């Protein structure tokens, strides 16, 4: 079993952003315009018809469809980020072609499953504090017990998050494996739950501090909160937002690569005959039919064989 190095994992995850900044910015423009554009248009039409804030009406249907489409346009970006972190390259399939591919729908499906698992655990964890705080039990000492219930809920939430964090390895698995499995991804990270948790925690704390500093930076130079010069600092905040978004995806991807025993794509190539890392059974990228020595590997992936990367 491979032991996950916490700081090295975080550094490698952040390095992906710097090594592929140009590609990432170019790819991010596609969901920005193709995805969020229709959302803004449909919301504007609904507001023009005075249909917002009045319960369900037919004008909200296009808004819901546009939101779903916007989410779907973001999935190829996430898949490519995971592929860069694991393999150092992306598959030769066009971005628009990936939006409604089977791989994108698998990514979305596994994401919904993981979200439901974590949401269910959080609901169970905060139940003691919610029940005592609402006074449902009508206990005379409920107010004095509330701080204890909150403490128990916090501990249970952290424990459940650590317990389920290996499920996040399914995202890079979907990006690089032909037949990903939720339980196989969980088993891959089950021996490093605490280390995975600290990787995510350190990334969250780091970018939380950077985001706070970026928001406070204009106040050091501008006293007027409505000054138009504050727009000068907007690129810094957008840069940090993209950096944070990419790193939140590359941390599990780099952890997947390390635990799978795959080499670092950013490391110098080893001489021929040099012993490499041993790959974990059942893990790693799916074989490609057009790879050298893989003539019998089976049919090519279903997402097409376009030679484009954008």
UniProtKB/TrEMBL annotation:
Give the keywords, sorted.
Membrane, Transmembrane, Transmembrane helix
Query: Which N-terminal stretch is annotated as signal sequence?
Result: none
Where does this protein have compositionally biased stretches of type Low complexity?
A: 279-301
At the top level of its lineage, which domain of life is listed?
Bacteria
Stated name of the protein: Glycerophosphoryl diester phosphodiesterase membrane domain-containing protein
Task: Enumerate the residue ranges of region (Disordered).
Answer: 265-310
Species per Swiss-Prot/TrEMBL record: Fundidesulfovibrio putealis
Q: Where are the transmembrane segments?
A: 25-46, 58-79, 107-133, 145-174, 194-214
Q: Which residues form a coiled coil?
A: none
């Amino acid at each position: 079993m491979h032991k996950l190095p916490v700081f090295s994992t975080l550094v490698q995850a952040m390095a992906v952003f710097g090594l592929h900044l140009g590609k990432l910015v170019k790819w991010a423009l596609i969901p920005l315009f193709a995805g969020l554009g229709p959302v803004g248009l449909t919301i504007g039409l609904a507001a023009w018809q005075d249909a917002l804030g009045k319960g369900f009406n037919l004008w909200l249907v296009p808004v819901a469809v546009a939101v779903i489409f916007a989410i779907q346009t973001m999935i190829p970006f996430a898949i490519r980020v995971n592929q860069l972190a694991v393999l150092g390259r992306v598959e030769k399939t066009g971005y628009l072609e990936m939006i409604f591919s089977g791989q994108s729908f698998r990514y979305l499906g596994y994401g919904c499953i993981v979200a439901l698992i974590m949401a269910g655990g959080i609901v169970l964890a905060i139940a003691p504090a919610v029940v005592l705080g609402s006074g449902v039990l009508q206990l005379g000492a409920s107010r004095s017990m509330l701080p204890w219930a909150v403490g128990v809920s916090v501990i249970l939430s952290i424990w459940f998050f650590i317990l389920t964090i290996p499920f996040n390895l399914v995202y890079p698995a979907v990006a690089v494996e032909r037949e990903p499995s939720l339980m196989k991804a969980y088993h891959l990270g089950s021996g490093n739950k605490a280390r995975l948790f600290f990787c995510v925690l350190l990334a969250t704390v780091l970018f939380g501090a950077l985001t706070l500093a970026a928001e406070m930076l204009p106040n050091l130079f501008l006293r007027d909160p409505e000054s138009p010069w504050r727009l000068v600092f907007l690129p810094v905040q957008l840069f940090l937002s993209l950096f944070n978004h990419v790193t939140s995806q590359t941390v599990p991807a780099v952890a997947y690569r390390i635990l799978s025993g795959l080499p670092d794509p950013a490391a110098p190539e080893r001489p021929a005959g040099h012993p490499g890392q041993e790959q974990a059974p059942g893990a790693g990228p799916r074989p490609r039919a057009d790879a050298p020595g893989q003539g019998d590997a089976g049919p090519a992936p279903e997402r097409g064989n376009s030679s484009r990367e954008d």
